Amino acid sequence: xxxPLTNFIHVNGYTIILTLWFGAEAFVIQExxxxxxxxxxxxxxxxxxxxxxxxxxxxxxxxxxxxxxxQMLLYNLFEFILSLTFLTYYRYFKxxxxxxxxxxxxxxxxxxxxxxxxxxxxxxxxxxxxSLIIKTIIINKLQTYSCKTRYLYRSFHILLxxxxxxxxxxxxxxxxxxxxxxxSYIRQRLLEAYGYLNTFTIEIIYNCKYKWPTFALAKKLYxxxxxxxxxxLPLKPFRNIIVVQVExxxxxxxxxxxxxxxxxxFLNFLKKSAMVKKVFxxxxxxSANADYSVLTGAKYPGLCPYAFSKxxxxxxxxxxxxxxxxxxxxxxxxxxxxxYSRKISYSSMGFREIYFLEDxxxxxxxxxxxxxxxxxxxxxxxxxxxxxxxxxxxIFIITLTSHCHxxxxxxxxxxxxxxxxVLWKKxxxxxxxxxxxxxxxxxxxxxxxxxxxxxxxISHMDYEGAGKLEVPLMIFQKGNDIHDGTIxxxxxxxxxxxxxxxxxxxxxxxxxxxxxxx
Length: 518
Fold this sequence. Notes:
Blueprint: H1 3-32, H2 41-65, H3 69-93, H4 99-104, H5 106-111, H6 122-146, H7 154-177, H8 183-192, H9 196-210, H10 215-221, E1 229-232, E2 240-246, E3 257-258, E4 261-262, H11 265-271, E5 275-280, H12 288-296, H13 320-323, E6 328-333, H14 342-349, E7 353-355, H15 357-360, H16 374-387, E8 393-398, H17 423-444, E9 450-455, E10 470-477, E11 486-489, H18 497-510
Parallel strand pairs: 2-8, 2-9, 6-7, 6-8
Antiparallel strand pairs: 1-11, 3-4, 5-10, 9-10
């Protein structure tokens, strides 16, 4: 066989093998990192087939476009890093990554970078390294024969691959958006048909065209729950209400004893004069859904891993800061304000003052790993509260120290062994520290202050006595026993996060101070 023909066969053979390998790896990574609610086998196979075709056509486009050896090797390394990142992210959050998540989680990624190594799967890393080596060998073989023969019709191959890929993306976009332009439906279909290439493309198209999540999403999910709840609390007149969202707070840690010590001794003491309820969580992926539901009174959008957006659509919703019109509303969070675009969203919600890490550091508060510790944040918030004695204050605080992997905890009272790195023991120590912070907070707040405390999600930690899918809701008033108070629902079912919104509204509305709500 003439050498030019042999070289031509080798070039095209290695091109096909490399295209299939790149496309297959992308497809496998997608399959391992999707959250599909779709149970229809035929539709599921159709979606998988579409994903596979898009992956292979995009790989074909890349191989035809990348002419030089170093370009292929760089992309080979880039795909290895991306694949490992997607797998590690999914292992932690249990949801596929998206462009909005990448844009709004940069600071958290940096904060947990030093603890991400335990999340990396050795098996996945080994397989990806093997794939990296094999693709490198194929690239070297391809380039060896490419130097000996002319790669005919390269422009044709690039154009054909680009047209084919864009056609498949258009089909995918139409399949996702057909029959309904409701954003929550589209998001669910995106996760159903999740493939990073087509979904990232669709996200860009849809964000440009519809700026989702749009106001329509929140408005649709905003169902009035006020008349669904009956509240009877013997509260005294008050000027201040503090709402605290506690990171990773299980209901089961209350009254729990481990290592012969109470995990939450102060909260257990408060329970005697507080009203305590369980809030049921069907599924929790991350913290962005809790404050969304509590502040808006809307059901969480569902499968998407984020509820906030840089698109300011909260200005038209009746959020808590807008309903409590005679309160000075202030929010505190020890992390960065661009984490899940909270700062933009909170401003749109109507908070008068907003404090995130970038606002707290210039005021002397120190960052520890991810952000400001709870004790420091509580002290700052209480000092601000006491400086505003003439105002009626609504304060919203999100804690941070008990965030997984629990590296911010300054004390180790339950499990004091500093060499003990068992994750659930570190979690217990972190919750014990939060309990101490609440004791200090309680001692400094004015009399008759009302505090609403709830967990944003469960810890997912496996310890003795750990419960499932339940976080606590505690309502108490300093200097007043309200444990005989009651909350009931006119419809059947457990309390949900968005019910807390309406409870807060009712607390203010029923208070004898006659503080009005909108």
